[in-house]
Amino acid sequence: MVGPTDALVSELASIVGAEAVKSGALDRHLYSKDAGVVRGDVSVVVLPKTARQVAAIVRTAVAHGVPVVPRGAGTGLTGGAVPEGAAILLVTTRMDQVDVDAANRTAWVGPGVINLDLSNQTASLGIHFAPDPSSQAACTIGGNVANNSGVLTVWLKARPSTTCLPSNSSPPVARSLWPDLAPPTHRGSTSAG
Ligand SMILES: Cc1cc2nc3c(=O)[nH]c(=O)nc-3n(C[C@H](O)[C@H](O)[C@H](O)COP(=O)(O)OP(=O)(O)OC[C@H]3O[C@@H](n4cnc5c(N)ncnc54)[C@H](O)[C@@H]3O)c2cc1C
Questions:
Q1: How far is residue 124's CA from residue 174's CA, in Å, rounded to a whole number?
Q2: Nearest Cα residue to atom 34 of ligand 1
Q3: Is a pLDDT exceeding 60 seen at residue 171?
Q4: CB distance 34 to ligand 1 below 6 Å
Q5: Distance of CA 132 from the midpoint of ligand 1 (Å)
Q6: 188 pLDDT higher than 70
Q7: What is the separation of C-alpha 80 from the centre of its chain, rounded to a whole number of angstroms?
Q8: Does residue 177 fall inside a structural domain?
Q9: pLDDT at 180 over 50
Q10: Same domain? 103 vs 160
Q11: Is the minimum distance from the CB of 140 to ligand 1 under 6 angstroms?
């Protein structure tokens, strides 16, 4: 497992703060796999809080010639968040802003918001975020969108690909729409776990 250069660690720390950069051997080992069976190679783990910080991290990665792999909660089963070569692992779990517009059945969320937290926050408003994989107590909206995840309610309502739109705002970075109860018109084929 290849560790990061001191220069890379120090540049990342100047962006997110030293406490949000993890470069020790134990941290790199712990983050080197998701819930699947494959283990990869993490050079350094960084936990940004804002989209502006994400952009700065990517610029730094390009300058150092190091790939970036995003990760939400790491509950994926297919190794999507497992880098193949030594990479910066960009973990979104601190990007957890939620802004609900109940009248328009819309929420602006950071990619690191835990799926179940969104529905818990909106329950008193009588609305619910429909894509709810069995891992919803841990997985993030960003991971849901990237994997187009969902299960039971999805068949009645909709998948992330039909309920989430990218946002240009900074932050949050995703816009989620609650669909009405009409059955989806498309037929998806991805992960119903
Ligand atoms: C017990 C259990 C039950 C599960 N049940 C289901 C189920 O019912 N239905 C289902 O579909 N899946 C299920 N899964 C799989 C998994 O939970 C989902 O795929 C979930 O959406 C992954 O979210 P995550 O935040 O953990 O993403 P991660 O595992 O961290 O990442 C998954 C992929 O998304 C990418 N990614 C993450 N965040 C971002 C981002 N912000 N921008 C770009 N790319 C990003 C990663 O690079 C990776 O490729 C289950 C897993 C477990 C362990």
A1: 22
A2: 143
A3: no
A4: yes
A5: 11
A6: no
A7: 11
A8: no
A9: no
A10: yes
A11: yes
Atom of ligand 1 nearest to the CA of 71: 30
Q: What is the spatial distance between Cα 60 and Cα 6, in angstroms, rounded to a whole number?
A: 13
**Structure-model confidence comparison of residues 32 and 185, the more confident one:** 32
* pLDDT on residue 53: 96
Whether residue 192 lies inside any domain: the answer is: no
159 Cβ closer than 6 Å to some ligand 1 atom: no
> Confidence class of residue 132 from pLDDT cuts 50, 70 and 90?
confident
Q: Does 162 contact ligand 1 (Cβ within 6 A)?
A: no
**Confidence at residue 187, expressed as pLDDT on a 0 to 100 scale:** 35
Which amino acid is present at 40?
G
Q: Residue 53 belongs to what domain range?
A: 6-91
Instruction: Please tell me the residue having the least CA distance from ligand 1 atom 1.
Output: 135
What DSSP line would sit under 90-146, residue for residue?
Answer: EE-TT---EEEEGGGTEEEE-TT-BHHHHHHHHGGGT-------TTTTT-BHHHHHH
pTM, 2 dp: 0.85
- Determine which residue's CA is closest to atom 41 belonging to ligand 1: 142
Total of domains in the chain: 2
Residue 123 has a pLDDT of 87
Centroid of ligand 1 to alpha carbon of 139 (angstroms): 6
Asked, for residue 16, whether it belongs to a domain, the answer is yes
Can you list the positions of beta strands (E) in the chain? 21-22, 42-46, 68-71, 87-91, 98-101, 106-109, 164-166, 174-177
Check if 136 has its Cβ closer than 6 Å to any atom of ligand 1: no
As a whole number, the mean pLDDT across the chain is 82
For the cut 90, the answer to whether the pLDDT of residue 64 exceeds it is yes
